[in-house]
Amino acid sequence: MNLNEECLLRYLKHPDELSYNTEILKINNHILEQKFIVKNILANIPLFNYTENVK
Asked: Using CA of residue 12, residue 16, residue 22, residue 27, what is the dihedral sign?
């Protein structure tokens, strides 16, 4: 069972905890977004070597 299913099940059992479940999902989405950025954007930035050529 994934986090979304767990939150839905928890909400169905305890509808008064909607704000708590919403916050959990927001935090989880933020974590997933950060992982995506690191994996797909930052990992693809080329590294430049700024040393001068020695002759």
From this structure: negative
Q: How many residues does the chain have?
A: 55
What's the CA angle centered on 46, arms 48 and 44, to 5 degrees? Answer: 165
Residues 7, 24 contacting (CB under 8 angstroms): yes
Task: Compute the radius of gyration of the chain from its Cα atoms.
Answer: 21
- Tokens encoding 51: 């040393």
- Digit-coded pLDDT (tens) for 20-40: 888 888 998 999 998 988 887
